[in-house]
Specification:
- This protein is an alpha+beta fold.
- It folds into two domains: about 1-80; about 105-335, 2-Layer Sandwich (BirA Bifunctional Protein, domain 2).
- It is about 40% helix and about 20% strand.
- It has eleven helices and nine strands.
- It has helices at about 1-20, 20-35, 40-45, 55-85, 105-120, 135, 170-180, 220-235, 285-295, 310-315, 330-335; strands spanning about 125, 130-135, 160-165, 185-190, 205-215, 240-245, 250-260, 275-285, 300-310.
- The strands form two sheets. Strands 1-4-5-9-8-7-6 form a seven-stranded mixed beta sheet.
- A hairpin with a 2-residue loop joins strand 6 and strand 7.
- The radius of gyration is 38 Å and the shape is elongated.
């Protein structure tokens, strides 16, 4: 028995060392350790060994099995390393399958297009934190302490002093605190409202705020700026109307409507048969907001406006559900390939 064990050790280790591929090595393993392998045959022959020699023979066979198993594992590692080092692969060759390039998200495309229009009017671009202080989001914007917008049902409060901003207007005050007039800025960004999602509402969405401050700025300047933007973005001359409204941070305040992009003012389902679409809120900056920013009393005037980028994108591309803009469904996004 010992002679057979010694012979199988020498032959087995030699065959393992000579295996030059994973397939060849697997064949050697089966021949040595498989169910019908040579070592298995010796183990089955232990029943024919005398009682006094059987323990020693069994221990020797177990030791041989360990040695052959270790040799097989080492050779497997050697072949894997050699294969990786000898791969004949040209990484500069083009792929066989066509590569589908990405495209700009419709929200990003609309945001940048709006900013580009205002860049052409001489506006700069500003930004501010999405996690905002209650002071900048409400107090500095002339919101009374008992204003309904402070209610937790509308705002995501993090604690008594901090919240997720509900509008981009806080960036107005932050900018005026560090920049002296004359100034003209747009502030695009994401905002948050504690609302249930449906086809026209979302708990997070994008706004863009505009601010211009100088001496002798009037509501006429606001009207001409809005008209120039609408004509540039939607194309052609479109009728607009300014309706009286209320915002705590502007006085006077207005809602701006434009002629429906779908029916050109004739009345349709998009505009609720009115011929008009609400496009933005706007107004002259309230004196209390200037005061919070540290501007001298009665030294400057200015206007501000704000609109939802999501709504603008929906109007431009005929999207009827705001949730489509946030679900990352490639079937929806691929429709804008070559359009944006």
């Amino acid at each position: 028995m010992q002679e057979a064990i010694d012979r199988l050790r020498a032959e087995g280790l030699s065959r393992i060392a000579q295996a030059d591929s994973p397939d060849a090595l697997e064949s050697v393993r089966v021949g040595l350790l498989g169910r019908k392998g040579e070592l298995t045959g010796l183990l089955r022959g232990l029943k024919d060994v005398s009682d006094d020699q059987r323990p020693a023979a069994g221990a020797a066979l177990n030791q041989l099995k360990l040695e052959l198993t270790a040799a097989l594992e080492n050779r497997t590692g050697d072949l894997a390393g050699a294969g990786a080092g000898s791969m004949d692969l040209d990484l500069t060759l083009p792929g066989r399958a066509p590569v589908q390039l990405g495209t700009a998200h419709p929200l990003l495309s609309v945001l940048e297009e709006i900013c580009d229009i205002f860049y052409g009017m001489g506006y700069d671009r500003g930004d501010g934190p999405e996690v905002e202080l209650d002071y900048y989001n409400f107090t500095a914007l002339n919101f009374p302490d008992d204003h309904p917008a402070r209610d937790i049902q509308d705002t995501f409060f993090l604690n008594e002093d901090m919240l997720l901003r509900t509008q981009t207007s806080p960036v107005q005050v932050r900018t005026m605190e560090r920049v002296q007039p004359p100034l003209a800025y747009v502030f695009p960004g994401r905002v948050y409202r504690n609302e249930n999602a449906d086809a026209s509402h979302s708990s997070e969405f994008y706004q863009i705020e505009g601010l211009r401050v100088d001496r002798n700025i009037s509501l006429v300047d606001l009207r001409e700026t809005v008209n120039a933007f609408i004509a540039s973005f939607f194309g052609g001359e479109r009728q607009t109307r300014f309706r009286p409204h209320f915002f705590p941070f502007t006085e006077p305040s207005v809602e701006v409507d434009m002629e429906c992009v779908k029916c050109s003012g004739k009345g349709c389902g998009v505009c609720g048969q009115t011929g008009w679409l609400e496009i933005m809120g706007a107004g002259m900056v309230h004196p209390n907001v200037f005061k919070a920013a540290g501007y001298p009393d009665d030294a400057y005037t200015g206007f501000a406006f704000g609109m939802g980028i999501d709504r603008i994108a929906m109007l431009k591309y005929g999207i009827d559900d705001i949730r489509l803009l946030y679900e990352n469904d490639l079937r929806f996004l691929n429709q804008f390939r070559g359009v944006l």
